[in-house]
Structures are given as C-alpha cells and as structure tokens.
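Supplementary Text 2. Reproducibility record for the structural model of the 396-residue chain.

All settings were left at their defaults, and a single model was retained for analysis rather than an ensemble. We include the record here because the model underlies the residue-level annotations in Supplementary Table 4.
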Amino acid sequence: MIKFCVEKMIGNKAFPNLSKHEAVPFTEGWAEFSTKYPFSETVVLLEHLAEHHIDYEIVSIDNADSETFYPIALSFFDFGIDWFSLIPSNAIDKLKDENIKILFYYSEGDNPYIIDAHLTKQCSEHGIPRNQIKFISANSEASKIDNFFTVVDDELLYRYRNKNFISARYTEEPRDKKYTALVRMHKFWRANTMATLWQKRLDTDGYFAYGDTTDSGELENDNPIEVDNYFGLRQLTKTFMTTIPFEADSMSDDDRNNHALHVNEHFENAYINIVLESHMDVDQSNGVFLTEKTFKPIKHSQMFIIFGACGSLQLLRDMGYKTFDHVLDNSYDLIENTTERWKTAMDMVLNVLDNRKDDIHKMYINCKDDINHNTKHYNGSKKPRLDKILKELQND
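Retained model, structure tokens:
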C-alpha cells in the first residue's frame, strides 16, 4: 500500500500541501486552490485511486517514513518559486535524511527536461538528495527522465469529472452534422485551422465554435505554424478573427470549461470530432500532451482527427485505443515538422469533409468496431494502469 503524508486534513479531505489559500471542502473556495499562489491544489491522484478501489494510507509528516510520499499537486509550475523553501522544516529534515520522498503531480505538458534541470538546481542549493524527488507529468517525454513518470491525467480527470453523463452510444441513425470543432481559447494555430474551414464554407456543416473571451496570451509570432508558407493564410486568419465569436450552444464560457457539463448534440448528432488540442508543439519537448479534448469523442462514440503533437495517435494506440486507420489517412501523425503536420492534417480534413454527408455516414458505420472498442476501453477500469505507475514510483 502506498503512503502519502499531508500537512493537515479537513474531515476526510487532504488539504493541499504548500497551499496558502484557506478553504473548506464542498465550498466554492475549495475549487480556487489552482488559481492561488503557489498554485498547489487538491491531489486528484487520490481521487483516481479511490475511484478505482486502490488502497492508500495518509499519515502525518511526523509519522512518515522512507516509503512515504509528500504530494505536491500543481496547476501551474512557477519557475520563480523556491519549492523547498515552502515545505515545512520537519519534512525538509526527513527529506535530507532520505526518510521521506517528494511527489510532484502535474497534469500539464510543460517541457519536463526544463523542469528536471530546475528541480535539480534547487535540490543542490538546499542540500537535498535529487533521487528523493519524483515527478509525474502529463507530457509523454517525462518517462525518459530519471525519477520522472508519465500519466495521461486528463483521461482519468475527464472520466472523474464527467461521470454523471453516460457515454453516447454508437447508432446508425443519420446525423445532422458532419463534424464537431469547438475552440474556447484563442491560439493562432487554432485560428488558422478554423479560418480555413470557414473559408471553404464548411462552418455550417458542423458544430463550429470559436470564442472571443478567452485568450492564451500567445503572440502571433508564437504561432508554431509558419503561416507565410501558405499564400493568404495570415490575412485569411486576420479576417476570420474579425468575425468571431461563432457559437454552437448557449452555454457561458465558464460552463464550456466545466468538464462536469456536457452538450449531447455535439457528440450524438455529428460523425467526426476535429480535435484542436492544447498544443501542436508541446513546449519544444518532442513529447505528446493529450487533454480532455481528445477523450470527449472517445467517450462519446465519435471518430476523431487530432491537431496536436507528433505521435498523438500513436500514444492513444499505446494506451489501447483505436484510431480508424482503415478509413482515415493518419499519416499526418508521423510528421515531426509542426507546419507540415498541420498542413497534412488540414488537407485530410478538407478531403473528408468534401464528401457528402451520406458518404461520411458510411465511413462512420465502417468504423463501428473501433468506435465501440474505444468507448468500452475508456469506461473500463484504469486500475492496471494506476497500479503500474504506483509500482514504478515505489520501486524506483
């Protein structure tokens, strides 16, 4: 049984280690840890273990031993924070004596090599053995680094948060829309993609949405797509941005970002989900970062095409999912150059959507086995995968 130590408990809930924010469970404040310095939040790993009936023990720092992990779950890894200066002195003493381990749990895709170098430097400055620090990341590249491990957390997190909705089932009833493509947060490469669909007058063929209230903060020069390689794309995108928002439902922007909520029609009344992932270039790490955007169509019985990192589809296959390779040209997933991968995926999407809806309906039926497999696999127990990561943590 794995052991965790926390600074304090409130009822049966572990209060986030390091947090300066005060809140009680089942109140609005309990959901605000992720936005408050130092961005230490509730350890969702504990929720995952409980959901899959995996036993664990929580002890105080004083009762921790060399097999105990002090968990730090983060919504944002702030490189300006001296993490070890925030950890209680009794935990630091045990850490230096190798009588406790630190476990960072980070559900984002930041470059794990940069994080590793940063933590290694801080360990050296504080006289802490580096091998006492473990780091779980959602970036697939993390597993190539000593003491780092990869967990595709958004598969588990979306499953946990969207649990009140039963998976949409596969049916052969005709659907009104060819596709679903939903963008809440503006990024220039996403605008390039949606502008291209809009230019081809395909926006009315799908549930097509592009918001105007949430911006990632990225500048036009941050775009990983070399837009000037394609004549007119830069100006087309600027023109498109003057026409937003496009809306596919009546929800508020906050509700659209709430994984506990759900619009049935987006999945049950469209054949293909065009997934615009969080990143196409995952912090220049060569890793893959999959979010709930990918797992929504998997849960809810849709085909999907992913605008994301090179190897996104391969990671899904490695996780046991099917990717409709007998129907879709998924060669784009192998292209390392981000601009070329985007263009190949874009051309494939346009080629698919150029079909009549009746033909896309036939494609969907041809993918019946893959679709049903994915939904079943998604809803199946994740206990073996969680057991594997716990074993790796404890045996490392």
